[in-house]
Amino acid sequence: MRAGMMDKQAHGTWLRSVLSALVLAAVGAGPLPLMIATPAMAQDENPFATRVTIDGAVITNFEVQQRALFLRALRLPGDPEAEALRALIEDRLGAAAAKAAGITVKAEDISAGMAEFAARANLSADEFIKALGDEGVAPETFRDFVKAGLLWRAVVRAKFPTAAQSVTEAQVDRAIAGTVTKPAIRILMSELFLPLQPGDDPDAILDEARSIKAEIENGGSFGAAARQFSASPTGQNGGRLDWLALENLPAPVAEKLLKLAPGQVSEPFVLPNAVALFQLNNLSEERGPAPAAVQVDYAEYLLAPGQDAAAVRAQVDRCGDLNIVARGQGADRLTVTKAMTSALPQDVGLELAKLDVNEASTALRRGDWTVFLMLCQRQALAEAPAPDPNAPAAPEAEAATDDGLPEGMIAPIRAAVKDQLGNKRLEQLAAGYMEELRSEARIEIK
Q1: 3-state secondary structure of 338
Q2: pLDDT tens digits for 97-143?
Q3: Which of the residues 13, 28, 55, 82 has an alpha carbon 20 to 30 A from that of 377?
Q4: For residues 207, 212, 217 and 220, what is the CA-based torsion angle, rounded to 10 degrees?
Q5: Domain that holds residue 324
Q6: Are residues 274 and 350 located together in one domain of the fold?
Q7: Are 277 and 265 in contact (CB under 8 A)?
Q8: What span, in angstroms and rounded, lies between the C-alpha atoms of 373 and 300?
Q9: Quick check: 190 and 260 in contact, CB under 8 A?
Q10: Own/partner pairs, 120-123, CB within 8 angstroms, 24+ separation
Q11: For the whole prediction, is pTM greater than 0.70?
Q12: Are residues 93 and 195 in the same domain?
């Protein structure tokens, strides 16, 4: 069972890496979120019936299902169906803008794009398509996704040809200075977890989460809902958590929470074994800069069905004690991991964010096994992680200049910052243009 779980996690990892490549390659991949609350499609509904019309262009139930499966296969946070609708609507708007501008992409360019993206996961296009097929995703879904990204990138570059080159040296200076003074943020939030067990229908759990969110937004209490529905131990106190450092949370969760006003509830997050809702209660800006990154060491010990978690906790004061508990039980029962918080599985990252060093949680499950999750160490990093001591020796460092940067690195660093600012500017313009297209379009959702 453990080996199968690890294979599935590895499978999701390379899929996520390819999606990241797609998003980074598509200049217009950052439009403002368009969250549409719609009921999930009934199982017996005609898959080729019209779900959305946009100025006469049609999106079918099948397309929504397929894009949602694609997003779910990538284990991305959020409501897969709502995100699928948002993305498909924007794909149609982008395609219409491309047609109006006389912009097309050739079939060979699409094939080359698919091959290039698959190669980022060390796969051929055929291997990548087969892997998606194992998740129920049709080849046309991946092809349409790539084509839409290529079209939108061409539209944005044609409409804003000089945007990326308009960054000034003063803006670069301010951006570099801002990386030093970026404030640390602490967040006060509440959580609600609906369990998602093997064999459960994810759409049914998502529907339940949407219903709970709607009831809260219509005057209900998040705390009361957490006490009634949440499978997390925090449900007993209404899901309320202590103050957490924002940088300790998984990046997708932190990003969406920052877009909420106090009292608002997030869209559902699909996690490996649960669907989660979060309520933002308050934010606090701390004195001093935020760390550049956070690195954690943590242990996962699998509790067998019926094994007493309290008895294990009584034997463990620190992570090293788990070696004694797990002695003779098989190598797969205890794993110790060192990782950046940005690379953690989201369910693990959320639990670790709540823990202090040498504290443990038993909120996570892996099939029939309960995970005894313990935080061994957390380190805030002001710079990039230290190199692996077993790695080949690095070349001797260049002499530093008066500003502390190696002389040969000043120009590359400034160039990289300038490119980043240019891309961000282009993304902002693309997002604004997409909102303009959406506001002018007639969109009807069935």
Answers
A1: strand
A2: 999 999 999 999 999 888 887 766 667 889 889 989 998 999 999 99
A3: 13
A4: 160
A5: 293-381
A6: no
A7: yes
A8: 5
A9: no
A10: 120/17, 120/18, 120/21, 121/14, 121/15, 121/17, 121/18, 122/14, 123/14
A11: no
A12: no
